[in-house]
């Protein structure tokens, strides 16, 4: 049996990163992975500018005077004249600082004493106050984003702040999915004895596009060797990776193993984790294949824990590792097991403290646990947990994804 860390490490070592890139409009770039560094040709801000609506003047004059003539008016978007010595300039937020001024007094700290005169009432002033300096956000020639970065709304803002309207990103991977099992009915079909509804198809087909990949959904494949081989071939032809659920444990009803062994290569693993013990990895005529277990919670967990980082790495992303949040357990886990448990858990606030609760039924077929929860809590191998122990919580949707 492999440990969880061994399985993940091996899987990630097998990834061949995509080389296919495209240059696209910034309006299409949300969620895409950068293929090239972004180097700024400009300073941001491009000029020293005011943080406040108020008056620009020089600190030297303030040492001698509190009443100033207003010698010019500088709205944002205009170019100021140099400041006449001993005077103030009316200035607005974002407007360039005139040459000869070195601070801005906000208008609430001044009073208008005649049509073109103000009195400064500020108790404390410093040179440079209320001025945003050239390049303080981005310096010219700085690398603002590196390849492998998955673009979020704030990244698009940063890129457009240097004037770029296009970015070079990796083309999205295409993932083909199918589910196996003759017991499966599609939603909308009438129930029948011995049958269950195909839940995994819809979980998988939500998880794949949520990560920004294109999906080819081949639906349910009949449990025969011929149908499985046919589906595999078709999937491998059109996709960068093929992902299935079901048919990876030891039963002879499972045709995934013999099908792939005819078409490529396959490793069947038993991983020391729960849910998600069986996992298959191989290739179909050269296309990577990941076989997730059939139990719905196991399929959900192994997608998140194995397929997600595998696919993100293949897509060129560098931020693969989900970061845990360490919090106090608000539960007891007394049956220490030899497999690492990824218990479905949620964060709750109690008396201004965040703690972790777990769903009472942690069965691999209890999909309700994944809906109730908002993440996994890790119960390490051979470990009991008592209330108040620190535990590692992994949200299902990491914020930086
Ligand atoms: N003798 C052994 N039996 C099993 C072992 C083992 O080590 N030795 N491992 C168990 C574990 S752990 C798991 S997980 C399952 C995984 O089995 P498979 O990947 O072969 O999956 P199936 O047998 O096809 O299905 C398991 C279970 O999940 C239900 N299922 C399957 N597909 C779907 C779907 N698309 N939607 C909803 N539910 C689905 C299926 O009906 C079964 O109940 O094997 C254990 N057995
Ligand atoms: O992966 Mo199985 O779900 O551990 O029960």
Automatic annotation (TrEMBL):
Reaction(s) catalysed by this chain's protein: adenylyl-molybdopterin + molybdate = Mo-molybdopterin + AMP + H(+)
Keyword flag Metal-binding: yes
EC primary class: transferase
InterPro entries in the record: MoaB/Mog-like_dom_sf, MoaB/Mog_dom, MoeA-like, MoeA_C_domain_IV, MoeA_C_domain_IV_sf, MoeA_linker/N, MoeA_linker/N_sf
Necessary cofactors: Mg(2+)
Pathway(s) it belongs to: Cofactor biosynthesis; molybdopterin biosynthesis
EC number: 2.10.1.1
Domain MoaB/Mog: 176-313
Keywords from the named record: Magnesium, Metal-binding, Molybdenum, Molybdenum cofactor biosynthesis, Transferase
Keyword field contains Transit peptide: no
Top-level taxonomic group: Bacteria
Family that this chain belongs to: Belongs to the MoeA family.
NCBIfam families in UniProt: Glp_gephyrin, molyb_syn
Role played: Catalyzes the insertion of molybdate into adenylated molybdopterin with the concomitant release of AMP.
Name of this protein: Molybdopterin molybdenumtransferase
């Amino acid at each position: 049996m492999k440990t969880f860390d061994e399985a993940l490490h091996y899987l990630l070592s097998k990834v061949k990163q995509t080389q296919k890139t495209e240059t696209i409009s910034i309006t299409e770039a949300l969620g895409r992975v950068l293929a090239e560094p972004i180097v700024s040709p400009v300073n941001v801000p491009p000029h020293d500018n005011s943080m406040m609506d108020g008056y620009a003047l020089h600190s030297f004059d303030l040492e001698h005077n509190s009443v100033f003539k207003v010698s010019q008016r500088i709205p944002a978007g205009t170019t100021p004249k140099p400041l006449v010595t001993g005077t103030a300039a009316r200035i607005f937020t974002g407007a360039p600082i005139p040459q000869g001024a070195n601070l801005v007094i906000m208008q609430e700290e001044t009073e208008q004493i005649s049509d073109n005169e103000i009195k400064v009432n500020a108790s404390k002033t410093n040179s440079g106050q209320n001025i945003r300096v050239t390049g303080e956000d981005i310096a010219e020639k700085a690398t603002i984003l590196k390849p492998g970065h998955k673009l979020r709304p704030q990244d698009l803002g940063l890129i457009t702040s240097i004037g770029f309207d296009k970015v070079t990103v990796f083309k999205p991977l295409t993932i083909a999915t199918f589910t196996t099992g003759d017991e499966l009915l599609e939603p909308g079909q009438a129930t029948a004895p011995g049958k269950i509804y195909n839940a995994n198809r819809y979980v998988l087909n939500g998880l794949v596009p949520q990560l920004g990949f294109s999906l080819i959904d081949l639906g349910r494949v009949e449990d025969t060797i011929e149908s499985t081989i046919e589906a595999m071939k078709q999937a491998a032809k059109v996709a960068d990776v093929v992902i299935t659920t079901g048919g990876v444990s030891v039963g002879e009803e499972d045709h995934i193993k013999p099908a792939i062994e005819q078409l490529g290569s396959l490793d069947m693993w038993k991983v020391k984790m729960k849910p998600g013990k069986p996992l298959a990895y191989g290739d179909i005529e050269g296309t990577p294949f990941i076989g997730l277990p059939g139990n719905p919670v196991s399929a959900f967990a192994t997608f998140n824990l194995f397929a997600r980082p595998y696919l993100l790495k293949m897509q060129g992303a560098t931020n693969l590792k989900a970061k845990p949040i360490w919090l106090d357990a608000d539960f007891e886990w007394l049956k220490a097991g030899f497999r690492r448990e990824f218990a479905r858990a949620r964060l709750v606030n109690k008396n201004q403290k965040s703690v972790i609760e777990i769903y009472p039924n942690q069965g691999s077929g209890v999909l309700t646990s994944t809906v109730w929860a908002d993440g996994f809590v890790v119960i390490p191998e051979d470990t009991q947990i008592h209330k108040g122990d620190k535990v590692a919580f992994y949200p299902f949707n990491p914020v930086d994804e």
